[in-house]
Every structure is written in C-alpha cells, then in structure tokens.
Design goal:
With 199 residues, this protein is of the alpha/beta class.
C-alpha cells in the first residue's frame, strides 16, 4: 500500500478541493484522510498499482502533491482575520510568502519548517520551527504597519530546542527579501547533509 501527501499551504483549502480529496480517498484508498501537524492532508491505504492513476486524477484539484519545501513546510495560526489577539494577518501572508520563496529560490530542495504566528501566544508554533515569524506592529514614519520578529533554530525531537530570537524585525512586505538572503546564505555555506536547523 502507498499514501499520497498533499501540500495545503497554511491549512487553507476550498470546500470543493476537500470534497475532491475525499472522493479520491473513497475511490483509491479506504476512504480515510489524515491531517498532519503541518496542516497538510494524507490519503492512506492506496493500492500501489493505482498510485500513478491517483496522481494523474489529483492534478485537476489544484492541491499540490509534489509541493515545494516552502509549500510543505509553511504553517500558520489563524491570524488577525479570525483572532482578536493577533497583531498581524497570517494566512494569506504565509500563502503568498511560500509562493514568493518558491519563485525566488526554485532550486531549494531542503526540508524547512517555516511557522508564522500573529502574536506572542504561539498558536502558529513559531518557537519550534527552523524559522519562526512572530507578528509585531512596527512604527514606520509615524504609521503602524504589520511586521514580523524572526526566530531561528527551533525544533522538536532529538536535540529539541526553542528558536532563538535573532533581534531582527521587518515589515511584512520585506519578509521575503530577508528569507531569500537567509536561505541563499544557508545554501552556499551549509556542510554536506546539514539541515537548516543545524546550520
């Protein structure tokens, strides 16, 4: 048996897409869907000889089966759209951010956890990500704008640790620039097999 993992950036999926995945699970698997901690969806118990057919049929849904590391690894809290505690909007921001990083770094293949939280309460779990972004309000020329405080090096499992606040904050519009610089430097400096977190 096989499984298929679909990348749902920041957990945002349309009802039609979710119904489509449920129909694929009924037809190709045992009808069950699993939701991952990274807000992605798995169809399990697929007969291996039908896996290629499922891949072909799933293309019409618009949910990535072969998502980039940024699609697979980006998670966020509900943000100011649905939470009165959040300082920043997170869902649409993280979806756009993942797409922008994908466009800017097309050869990036390393696994990366990029978590976005709209406030210090950590519903987006930014302290346990390779790169965590915590929503803040910044004063820019006397006007308050949404921004993010950067955390790096967090993770669970072996050698678990909380991410370190690096003392860098930037307006939301400039986050992609900062992350492009970070991941470009990582790619050029990392040792063979060195993960983003370890680097």
């Amino acid at each position: 048996l096989s499984y298929a993992g679909f990348s749902v950036v920041s957990g945002r999926i349309s009802p039609d897409q979710l119904r489509g995945l449920a129909a694929l699970a009924d037809e190709f698997g045992d009808g069950s869907l699993r939701l991952s901690a990274m807000q992605n969806i798995l169809i399990t118990n697929i007969k291996s000889e039908r896996a290629a057919e499922l891949v072909e049929r799933s293309r019409a849904l618009g949910v990535a089966l072969d998502g980039s590391p940024f699609q697979r690894g980006t998670a966020s809290c509900t943000g100011s759209e649905y939470c009165k505690l959040a300082l920043t909007e997170t869902k649409l921001f993280s979806i756009r951010l993942a797409q922008e990083l994908e466009d800017r770094l097309p050869g990036f293949t390393d696994t990366v956890k990029l978590h976005v939280a709209g406030c210090p309460n950590s519903c987006g779990q930014h302290p346990i990500a390779d790169v965590g972004l915590q929503g803040v309000l910044l004063n820019q020329g006397g006007v308050q704008v949404e921004g993010f405080d950067f955390f790096v090096g967090g993770g669970l499992g072996k050698n678990s640790t909380l991410g370190h606040r690096v003392g860098f904050r930037t307006p939301a519009d400039d986050v992609a620039d900062a992350l492009e610089r970070l991941f470009t430097t990582y790619t050029s400096e990392k040792l063979a097999g060195e993960s983003v977190r370890a680097w």
